[in-house]
Amino acid sequence: xxxxxxxxxxxxxxxxxxxxxxxxxxxxxxxxxxxxxxxxxxxxxxxxxxxxxxxxxxxxxxxxxxxxxxxxxxxxxxxxxxxxxxxxxxxxxxxxxxxxxxxxxxxxxxxxxxxxxxxxxxxxxxxxxxxxxxxxxxxxxxxxxxxxxxxxxxxxxxxxxxxxxxxxxxxxxxxxxxxxxxxxxxxxxxxxxxxxxxxxxxxxxxxxxxxxxxxxxxxxxxxxxxxxxxxxxxxxxxxxxxxxxxxxxxxxxxxxxxxxxxxxxxxxxxxxxxxxxxxxxxxxxxxxxxxxxxxxxxxxxxxxxxxxxxxxxxxxxxxxxxxxxxxxxxxxxx
Length: 334
Known about the structure:
This protein is of the alpha+beta class. The protein has 9 helices and 17 strands. The protein has helices at residues 19-32, 38-56, 58-72, 90-100, 106-110, 129-143, 162-165, 168-187, 292-295; strands spanning 5-7, 12-14, 114-115, 122-125, 159-161, 198-207, 214-217, 223-230, 233-235, 238-243, 254-256, 262-267, 270-274, 277-290, 308-310, 318-319, 328-331. The longest helix has 20 residues, at 168-187. The relative contact order is 0.13.
């Protein structure tokens, strides 16, 4: 709850244990980045402590919002909450069928995908355009409603947490288990691709008058799927660097284009960001897929052995002892 706090004004991730620690670790760094006065530093300190407090209340607040949404929100397109093969692109279903076959291999699968310049980043068409349009219509309908809204994370100010809206049980979970895991098992066996047992799914929105871009970061995931849903937009490519252990100064980045209906699969610890859109509006479906078998050894965010507290639902994808879904937990360190 105290690690990886993002300061948008300074494009910096920080750790907050105490005010004393924070001043020692970051006052000089922030000064070099333009935080020159005491009032500016006090404002940063206020934002950081508010974020720590928000994280401590996250589980309760999220459950409260989900309950309120169930009570007051009337979906525009109820059918989009349930996965249906008619939503899926023909090419995607063919790839999944191959992965389920006895002849499947990593080499054979890579031959069916479009490999990007960034290592182990793969492109595939996931949904039909008609489904993407209906999903955006549903999300816009929700945005315009009086229902409470939780934002995806500190880096995205506009978007929707899909578990709170009711997408997890009948859409995201079967999509992960029955369609995505056969693919990730072949592509990413070294980082938990064969045992992805939970997720966090959300939609982010970029608009010329709202969030334009996304700073360089890595995901709280073993494997990520990022699907461009629409609408019409220009620019805003993703860029990929190296893994999270490698400094940006030692990294050559590769740009990857967003195309509507297409998804990009990549390792969660692969550093990346999104360049600014120059016009229009873009919605992206993000699924952070998690493997408790991997993260129970080492938290991917704080890089320490996780210190767990009980969570709700999939929480942060850690498991206590039994590994049952009811035992999913949060790492108190991040």
